[in-house]
């Protein structure tokens, strides 16, 4: 019974951390920007990988619990910040494609994780801790290369009011040409959103006009989570 309880906690701790990460993602991306939020996440993922990777040698299940919890927080923030950042730094004609493609790579990552978890690969008694900490390797790669990318142009203009930085980021991302059209679109967006109140989660739940949308999302996600996938 104790082992079953610990196993359930280890599995569930990731989702608990993910919920907290999702709730924090809006504040972090608005306060620090998408790029810095992603760099912070990479650091959290690497720390989580070190905890879970050393759990087997230390023979401490508490390290696995802490590592899974940190991984969940990082995943919750990452799922929001990464999609926004990838879409905002993409050229306008490819922005929609990039936003949709992120779910494809998410499914690809899950598939790769299932394959690595086979007993013929990393799902063995000697290698399970390596499998649990594998996400730290991906985070380390992004931590190395992401500093060479600029902050997203919409964040620089809409949040920071940095017109020169926004134009510089556009040229660095999309090459040297005239970006007056894109710049004007961002300025129109800034004018439209000026004075608009940013709502927190509780305020959104109290807003009656979005209840149909919230119910649609709730039933869809509940159907995915409660369809037996976790049991399988």
UniProtKB/TrEMBL annotation:
<feature type="transmembrane region" description="Helical">
    <location>
        <begin position="97"/>
        <end position="116"/>
    </location>
</feature>
<dbReference type="InterPro" id="IPR036259">
    <property type="entry name" value="MFS_trans_sf"/>
</dbReference>
<dbReference type="GO" id="GO:0070837">
    <property type="term" value="P:dehydroascorbic acid transport"/>
</dbReference>
<keyword id="KW-0472">Membrane</keyword>
<dbReference type="InterPro" id="IPR045263">
    <property type="entry name" value="GLUT"/>
</dbReference>
<keyword id="KW-1133">Transmembrane helix</keyword>
<dbReference type="Pfam" id="PF00083">
    <property type="entry name" value="Sugar_tr"/>
</dbReference>
<feature type="transmembrane region" description="Helical">
    <location>
        <begin position="6"/>
        <end position="30"/>
    </location>
</feature>
<dbReference type="GO" id="GO:0005886">
    <property type="term" value="C:plasma membrane"/>
</dbReference>
<dbReference type="InterPro" id="IPR005828">
    <property type="entry name" value="MFS_sugar_transport-like"/>
</dbReference>
<dbReference type="InterPro" id="IPR005829">
    <property type="entry name" value="Sugar_transporter_CS"/>
</dbReference>
<feature type="transmembrane region" description="Helical">
    <location>
        <begin position="128"/>
        <end position="149"/>
    </location>
</feature>
<dbReference type="GO" id="GO:0046323">
    <property type="term" value="P:D-glucose import"/>
</dbReference>
<keyword id="KW-0812">Transmembrane</keyword>
<feature type="domain" description="Major facilitator superfamily (MFS) profile">
    <location>
        <begin position="1"/>
        <end position="232"/>
    </location>
</feature>
<dbReference type="GO" id="GO:0055056">
    <property type="term" value="F:D-glucose transmembrane transporter activity"/>
</dbReference>
<protein>
    <submittedName>
        <fullName>GTR5 protein</fullName>
    </submittedName>
</protein>
<dbReference type="InterPro" id="IPR020846">
    <property type="entry name" value="MFS_dom"/>
</dbReference>
């Amino acid at each position: 019974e104790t082992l079953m309880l610990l196993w359930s906690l280890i599995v569930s701790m990731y989702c608990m951390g993910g919920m907290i990460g999702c709730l924090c993602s809006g504040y972090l991306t608005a306060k620090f920007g998408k790029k810095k939020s992603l760099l912070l996440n990479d650091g959290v993922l690497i720390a989580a990988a070190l905890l879970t990777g050393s759990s087997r040698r230390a023979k401490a299940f508490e390290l696995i619990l802490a590592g899974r919890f940190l991984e969940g927080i990082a995943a919750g923030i990452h799922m929001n910040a990464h999609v926004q950042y990838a879409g905002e730094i993409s050229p306008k004609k490819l922005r929609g494609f990039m936003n949709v493609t992120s779910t494809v790579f998410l499914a690809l990552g899950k598939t790769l994780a299932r394959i690595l978890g086979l007993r013929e690969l990393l799902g063995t008694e000697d290698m399970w801790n390596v499998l649990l900490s594998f996400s730290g390797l991906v985070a380390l790669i992004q931590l190395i290369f992401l500093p060479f990318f600029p902050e997203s142009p919409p964040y620089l203009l809409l949040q920071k009011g940095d017109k020169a930085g926004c134009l510089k980021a556009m040229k660095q991302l999309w090459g040297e040409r005239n970006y007056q059209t894109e710049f004007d679109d961002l300025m129109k967006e800034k004018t439209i959103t000026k004075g608009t109140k940013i709502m927190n989660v509780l305020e959104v739940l109290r807003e009656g006009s979005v209840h149909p949308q919230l119910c649609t999302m709730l039933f869809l996600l509940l159907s995915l989570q409660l369809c037996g996938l976790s049991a399988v």
